[in-house]
Amino acid sequence: MDSQVRKKATIYDLSVLSGSSPSTVSAVLNGTWQKRRIARDTAQTIFGLAEQHQYTANLQARGLRHSRSGLFGLMVPVHDNRYFSSMAQTFEAHVRSRGQCPVVVSASRDPEEERRTAETLISYSIDGLFIVGATDPDGVHQVCRAAGLRHVNIDLPGTKAHSVISDNYEGARILTEAIIDRFGPDDPLRPDQLYLFGGRNDHASRERIAAFHATKKARLGDDPDDGVQSTGYSPEMTLAAFERFHARNGRLPRALFVNSSINMEGLLRFMAGRPPEMFEGLVVGCYDYDPFGSFLPFPVIMIRQNSEAMIAKAFELIDTAASPPQTFLIKPELIQPRSALRGPLDTLKDG
Amino acid sequence: MDSQVRKKATIYDLSVLSGSSPSTVSAVLNGTWQKRRIARDTAQTIFGLAEQHQYTANLQARGLRHSRSGLFGLMVPVHDNRYFSSMAQTFEAHVRSRGQCPVVVSASRDPEEERRTAETLISYSIDGLFIVGATDPDGVHQVCRAAGLRHVNIDLPGTKAHSVISDNYEGARILTEAIIDRFGPDDPLRPDQLYLFGGRNDHASRERIAAFHATKKARLGDDPDDGVQSTGYSPEMTLAAFERFHARNGRLPRALFVNSSINMEGLLRFMAGRPPEMFEGLVVGCYDYDPFGSFLPFPVIMIRQNSEAMIAKAFELIDTAASPPQTFLIKPELIQPRSALRGPLDTLKDG
DNA sequence: CGCACTTGCACAATCGATGGTGCAATGACT
DNA sequence: AGTCATTGCACCATCGATTGTGCAAGTGCG
Predict the structure, then answer these.
(1) Is the CB of A108 less than 8 angstroms away from the CB of B3?
(2) pLDDT of B188-226, one tens digit each?
(3) CB nearest A295 (choices: B56, B120, B297)
(4) Quick check: A42 CB within 7 A of strand D?
(5) Which of A57, A151, B117, B266 is the most buried (most CB within 10 A)?
(6) A21-64 pLDDT per residue, tens
(7) Alpha helices, DSSP H only, in A30-81?
């Protein structure tokens, strides 16, 4: 009843109530009162009033004064994806432990949207920004630099700011090896039986495709040109690619390298309504880890990108000067089929 | 080179450059210039300068003046979960289309953290808040009301503000029916062969458990007391529950009602390292939809909660007075095994 | 020409918190 | 008592944008 829909108390309110000046109230409540030689008694009084009236600072006002906001941004392509959302989970914990407020927004892999989103966040004077999987990291960089905003690229590298990315070449190499190893010497995999689906013209895909080619050539002796079906990061396009392949060949390849969990969803759509037998003997490598994906009816070897390490490294970099910009590779991990890993959620109390 | 790390331009900078007063510049740039009878020529000049100097408004200053920020918050328990992250995806699109900036934060299902997080967001004068799956919605409500912040509960209801939740009773009923229907008349399911794993003492779980009990009794004629293993929303606790069950009985139940995808991850952990044969014949109902979970080696019937409809309804409610608070039920959908649904990501350009 | 309007804009207060500076009161010391 | 240092706090400008108000110059009309 006491504090209905009344506006929040300000230092001016407490100033009147306590008989002290607003600046004294401010000093007490932001912790600088000792430095400003405010008497302990005065402070106590003000603390009491603050508690009684549920005072909390107006962070916009403080931010305006400081040209900082206490907000720290994470810009992801999409929320609805285990890789990015587990990154967000880790990110939040880090930011909170720094006493700041995490803000996660998505920019839909649209360069224009990416820049607009950065602009918006900058208008709130955010203190830092991680740019995850941006289509145009350097475009976002322009915007950030013009505003003097500290930022780090994650997952896809830019040329103007520090970047922390997966070691996609190495990851794709070990994944391709693992797929090939899955077939015994009695009936080994032939080069024309292993296809890569997914990917687009971004740094990560290019690296993975290069490693895929190189490893195929090294291990299988050959690598036909049509072994890569580029589909973008779209389930629907990936589905279409599988359907085209199936229409042409009457079956799926024996083995698949799927570029991401999003592309894997294209495979799921292909599976829906088709007989399970169609997928017998299939071996899939997926460049992403999803616990449910790991238990499909056929073996799915996965790559788990180490998002915790990437976020940690990014926080290390955010406070260091960016010149010259460097790219840091974080080694991903091969996950054998039927693995249920622990994740960031496991650190929560109970759930 | 031009705009190195120089501070952002303000209306005062443009004021000097244009020879107009700051208030004129402000009026031009915030669109009220016609109302304030600023000459078109003057406006043009200022628009030009603004563009040239890449002016963007300081939204903290604007927010301070307006006691609004243009930020709209979504507080979820965790990011790392398809249900919540797809909700976030839908939420973002809505907020953007309202011309506001979405802010997604997680509160870890910790009542204290929930209140603190709300406090923080309020300190930034956010314009609205959706409280998703809160452990203590009414506690958060207190905080919001004291600040006059519009808010709606989603997924778990409160008693003091409008709530939009899944029709958990109905969903659990049709899920339980579907599980039972999965078994033919030759070898029908016995009451002691169907167990519920997961859930805690929240509204959703209580409703689901009630429906589970009622449906079992109605369809199978009986319902032993120990048919519900409460584990919270924790993969690890759920794993432990499965292990206990298995240790006691030497096998899993024939059929499972798993309370959420998070609890399903506990089942995955149980599966890891155990022979696939152990899960032959198993039928699972899962109260959540995950595309990968839909294609496990045994039939998994899922409930897809309609997060799009819930978000849409919540936006409808946010602008209406909250008295008296009502709870709106959104019907969830039964998803047969091996289904790969389209999701919010499919509306994106390509990926 | 004189008066009433309209046009076009400047002025200044305001939102809430911060921090540099100044100043009175008190105490310490010669 | 006089000097100086310290204590304890108030004053005020400031961050950038918004908006109510006031006012000079221009226009129209009798």
Answers:
(1) no
(2) 999 999 999 999 999 999 999 999 999 999 999 877 777
(3) B297
(4) yes
(5) A151
(6) 999 999 999 999 999 999 999 999 999 999 999 999 999 999 99
(7) 40-52, 59-66
